[in-house]
Amino acid sequence: RFNRASLINVGFLESGNDTDYIAMHDVDLLPLNEQLDYGFPEEGPFHVASPELHPLYHYKTYVGGILLLTKQHYELCNGMSNRFWGWGREDDEFYRRIKAAGLQVRRPTGIKTGYETFQHLHDPAWRKRDQKRIAAQKQEQFKVDREGGLNNVRYRIESRTALSVAGAPCTVLNILLECDTSDTPWCTFG
Questions:
Q1: Per-residue pLDDT band at 145 (split at 50, 70, 90)
Q2: Alpha-carbon torsion angle 148, 155, 95, 1, nearest 10
Q3: 4-152 topology per CATH
Q4: Is there a contact between 106 and 45 (Cβ–Cβ < 8 Å)?
């Protein structure tokens, strides 16, 4: 099954020392306003897709969609929890990690396009296996994971593909995440 949080942890670990900050960016959220700032989040985590701008999620603790963090801040949080198999809730738990690390989330100001700032291409009918909740998964996902994150993500790189996007060099990683069925029995359907 899909595990966005673990994949972000892997991306962070595999990015090495060539970057000084990361952009956690949902692939189904397309920015439509050129005034959005993707610059270095010098003053702390910067939530580009704030609740005032996101077309679907409007609660004040929302930090999903697009979040920029320095590598130091991501490490302070121990990355994201690896317990979130399937779609959703991983960013809600990450908000708690940000707060526990003593960090303040900043958000855009002066953007006048409101809920028209992004195009959201999310359809829950796609990949139904990633929408399904199994066994005690729903209750478990409301708990704070104080132990897992960058320090215990388990994966294997199946392949690396170098390519260029608009002239910028990129590497696409095909990742196989390890699934511990004793800890998270909802990581598989088998």
A1: confident
A2: -110
A3: Spore Coat Polysaccharide Biosynthesis Protein SpsA; Chain A (3.90.550)
A4: yes
